[in-house]
Amino acid sequence: MNSSSTEDLVEQAAGVGDNGSPEPPFSLELSQDQQDIRDWVHGFAADVVRPAAAEWDEREETPWPVIAEAAKIGLYGYEGLAQFWFDQSGLTLPIVNEELFWGDAGIGLSIMGTSLAVAAIFGQGTPEQMGEWIAQCFGTPEEPKVAAFCSSEPDAGSDVSAIRTNARYDEAKEEWVINGQKAWATNGGIADVHVVIASIDRELGSRGHAAFIVPPGTEGCEQGAKVRKHGLRASHTADIHLDDCRVPGSCLLGGKEQLDERLARAREGKSSGSQAAMQTFEATRPMVGSQAIGIARAAYEYALGYAKERRQFGRAIVENQAIAFTLADMKTEIDAARLLVWRAAWMGRNQIPFTNAEGSMSKVKSGEVAVWATERAMQILGGNGYTREFPVERMHRDAKIYDIFEGTAEIQRLVISRAISGVQVR
Q: For residues 368 and 308, what is the distance between their CA atoms, to the nearest angstrom?
């Protein structure tokens, strides 16, 4: 090692940058603003969400009163989401998600489900489209609304290239005509604004897709069957039927000129940029991971408290090594998953490419930890954990979907393996 490089290392260790000015040391400590937001959301989750969780899970209905309360305090709405999203560290939105889903996952998704549609508009829309539609996704504090992102179909879940919903352009009326069926749409049918992924050119597969805004009250956009789910019951999920659904030309996210250029490149065999559905999923995978962490943490904390109070054979069960070691493993796995989420969220916010599929890593790890940790919590509670009198039963049901939606664990591993090997693993 030469002397100049040694001097550079000494300066870096002392926190001095290239221009001679001190640089802040590396830190995982949250800023005061982030701590304040975390505590604010945690208070809402503890005081408003948790007390309502069991009721809305049993009712299997959208908890509009809770959404309204979130809107009143600024937790639900464009301004709040923008504040969380535009934090340069990328950590505020995962922190908010974790605290909210610590309260309850079904209600949490009812509050945060709109953000998936907003992410699609923000990621693919023009500035004019963002200004027109994002606020409408949320409604107002006095009259909150929700939005839906519609990508999956009965025969197109993990394989987005199999999407059959199609859109054709009516030149005479300057309208897009959309036909098809969407499945498993969060807020589908009850949303004011639907964002729909449709195929323009099926021969191009997923490169021939585009995203459309379907405005409120559009004829030909109807709710199909409501899905009765194993978990997340307070979050509305339904099929959407699109039958000669006509939307203005201005509702194509990104605009027709950009679409035509992208399709032309694809037809020539050139790179056409991000796919409409996958671009949204890439941005939201760390956010979904943070939701899973909230569920896992809630189960861990409940099990820890229970183990300290529950007595068997004359002592608290936490004094048994099997229980104590399980809790230690739960805490370790949850913290490890959170660090993966934070890394991916920081990279995404700062536009650092996921060269090793870091977004998929964060999502698959968090989902599997949530399922495992909630199952372990049930085991620690014994027979009580299997009853609806204790919340870990609901947490376990809620956790399972995080192994499945927005890319199954198998699909995430496929993405990761392709990224690290450069091989088209199938």
A: 26
Residue 27 lies in a domain: no
Query: Pairing state of beta strands 166-170 and 209-214?
Result: unpaired
214-264 pLDDT, tens digit per residue, is 999 999 999 999 999 999 999 999 999 999 999 999 999 999 999 999 999
Q: Residue 75 belongs to a domain with what CATH number? A: 1.10.540.10
> What are the residues whose beta carbons fall under 8 Å from the beta carbon of 360, sequence distance 6 or more?
285, 354, 407, 412, 413, 415, 416, 419
pTM of the model: 0.90
Given 90, 118, 138, which residue is the final one in a domain?
138
Which residues form the catalytic set? 406
The residue segments making up the domain with residue 225 are 147-267
- 415 phi/psi in degrees, rounded to 5: -60, -45
**Spatial CB neighbours of 351, under 8 Å, sequence gap ≥ 6:** none
Whether 225 and 154 have beta carbons less than 8 Å apart is answered as no
The reply to whether 1 falls in a domain is: no
The whole-angstrom separation of Cα 417 and Cα 340 is 17
Give the CATH number for residue 236: 2.40.110.10
- Count other C-beta atoms under 10 Å from residue 333's C-beta: 21
Confirm if 97 and 294 have CB atoms less than 8 A apart: yes
* Last residue in a domain, options 267, 289, 308: 267
Question: Are both 291 and 391 inside the same structural domain?
Answer: yes
C-alpha R_g of the chain: 23
Neighbours of 318 (CB within 10 A): 19
What digits encode the pLDDT tens for the residues 180-218?
A: 999 999 999 999 999 999 999 988 988 899 999 999 999
